[in-house]
Design goal:
globular; 8 strands; alpha+beta; eight-stranded mixed sheet; Aminopeptidase; binds coenzyme A; 35% strand; 176 residues; acyltransferase
């Protein structure tokens, strides 16, 4: 399948490229990102972004995931990442982060809405799920505004220390 691209009013979601590595490292290297995500270590090792970008291409080719760099359509600036992860049997997990300088502009909500549409209409997935740390409610707002349903509370190892913490669980089923 062709490399995916998603356009929204203000954003372009596109495939990660090798030249994105330094900006991914700079933005994902902020502790406030690692603190509330599952797979971002802190400190962020120099070669990790490059390895992640290579893996993104492999995952898209094998159908395992669709990883996107989020850029501002006007400036081309990289503002974050969003992904459909662990694609299997018509289901996927949604994950994302937005660089701290770009918070509170509605970018995550705008991108997540478009990603859900892409997942159901373009990839024909049937169910999406997502979770966020209970102490990170702004992520829940992103999911709620993108049509996700709150399922309840669970526990998961999260954050850069891998500590088990309460997480809020969400799902969205195609056509509901
Ligand atoms: C969660 C995150 C993706 C939100 O990105 P964003 O682009 O700022 O989100 P939006 O601007 O679309 O706003 C979403 C909601 O969060 C709220 N919000 C945004 N920044 C906030 C802040 N610093 N403090 C409190 N609330 C905030 C907004 O008010 C909005 O809620 P509303 O619709 O009720 O007003 C971003 O904060 C982030 O990357 N955090 C670290 C990584 C992370 O949490 N990833 C998700 C893991 S599950």
């Amino acid at each position: 399948m062709d490399e995916p691209r998603i356009e929204t009013q203000r954003l372009l979601l596109r495939t990660p490229q090798p030249e994105d590595a330094s900006e991914v490292q700079r933005l994902a290297g902020d502790f406030r990102i690692a603190d509330v995500t599952r797979s971002i270590p802190h400190p962020y090792p120099p070669e990790l972004a490059q390895r992640w970008i290579e893996r993104c291409a492999e995952e898209w080719a094998s159908g395992a995931a669709a990883n996107f760099i989020i850029t501002e359509a006007d400036s081309g600036k990289l503002v974050g990442c969003m992904a459909l992860k662990d694609i299997s049997r018509g289901e996927a997990e949604v994950g994302y982060w937005i660089g701290v300088p770009y918070w509170s502009r509605g970018y995550a909500s705008e991108a997540c809405n478009a990603l859900v549409d892409f997942a159901f209409r373009h990839l024909r997935l049937r169910r999406l799920h997502a979770s966020h740390l209970a102490r990170n409610p702004q992520s829940g707002r992103v999911l709620f505004k993108a049509g996700f349903r709150h399922l309840g509370l669970g526990h998961a190892a999260c954050g850069s220390q891998g500590k088990v913490e309460p997480v809020e669980l969400y799902e969205q089923v195609s056509g509901e």
